[in-house]
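Hi D.,

Good news: the full-assembly prediction came through. Inputs first.
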Amino acid sequence: MWANREPFLEILNSELNMIGDMQPEDIAGDYKEVTLDLYNSVNRKILYTDIETPYPDGKLIVSTTDPEGNITNVNKSFIEMSGYSEDELIGAPHSILRHPDMPPAAFKDLWDTVKKGDKWQGFVKNIRKDGGYYWVKATVIPNIRNGKLAGYTSVRRKPSRTNIDACSKLYPTMF
Amino acid sequence: MSFMFTVSPDFTPDHLSGWYIFNTWLQRQTDIAIHLEMYNDFASQHKAIKEGAIDLIYANPFDAAMLVREKGFLPLVKAEGVADEAIIAVNTESSIEDVAQFEPGTKVAFTDDPDVKMMGMIMLEPGDLDADNIVPISADTYILVAKHLLRGEADVGIFLAEVFDGLSGMVKSQLRVLVRSQISVIHHCLMIGPEMMDKRELILEKLVQMSSDEQGRGVLKSLGFENWQKVEDEEMEFMIDLMDTLMI
Ligand SMILES: Cc1cc2nc3c(=O)[nH]c(=O)nc-3n(C[C@H](O)[C@H](O)[C@H](O)COP(=O)(O)O)c2cc1C
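Then the structure:
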């Protein structure tokens, strides 16, 4: 059993669709460092700056996941805003965008809601590959095909500054 | 007995005769008797759909969910390279440079074209505007939306981008685009209903080959686009889910 430990870990890692630590050479500007405890006890080192990328007018950022939350599809705006390539995104867990300022309760609420088959809507601060961030107003819905859950789709639109300011005050109180 | 075909009432008036020409072409190609019925507004078209009177429809994306999930319709084709996009515009004299500057009580002019209105309202959200705090000004046509802006009766207008782009230079020179949507996955779609479903393959085959002969190309031209493109069931399902997220 123990002799087989390493191959076993390899399989485990690929099954979890691990996302690696963020890399200093990808980061633009001064950054802070924190390790996030993601779902399934996956740890990820996050390097983050306080540079905001404003949400582009008139665009929707769209992604689809499998029932576990691994990305299966992204649109062009998603790629542009996240700073990752399509190859890096497809197959990665959606927590690749998880920003340390987002309270875990928000994502618990998201998952509790969509697993019941309902729509979830909320304001989310996402991290970019370059360590910067962007705010979105996200709506997540289950994709039902032939009566079965096929995955989830999230569509983001531009949030108002009022809502961003309110969430920037509220979220730190939710940890 | 003939099948009943209808077109979403938001089609551009220039193409009215095009739809009749298309229906004639389709009947000749397929040997199926089809009657084209045009409704003046969405309310009367919806009533006909609810009553099960419609078998073939060039549908507004807003109605796709109801057609597929409640009425058993499936997609055939869309106009190649054509997506529904919206524009929000103000009078050139307006002091508004950014949506964020709008205040509650803003007078918003729009038509009853449901997907365009929805996209326009989403583009106003970053200014904290919503259905509850705007003053709605509903207009029968996009020309009238433009007139409300020119006369200063509305602060901002919502347009179908294609129609805005086609306004006369005279009108456009007095309007300023604040935001143009770049969504690209919301589009009208020709859809087929349950009574006609056994004809789906035949019709589809004729439509995707339509641009390969001179006559077909002529008919397409009168509709205002180059070709039909097949819409897969999953593409339609995806668009329905997407519209669903935008309706709240
Ligand atoms: C369709 C869909 C879209 C999501 N989009 C995001 C997102 O943009 N940013 C994000 O941090 N989490 C997003 N999530 C939630 C993540 O799956 C994950 O729950 C979250 O990042 C927190 O990580 P954790 O659950 O591993 O703790 C999304 C989930 C789904 C199903």
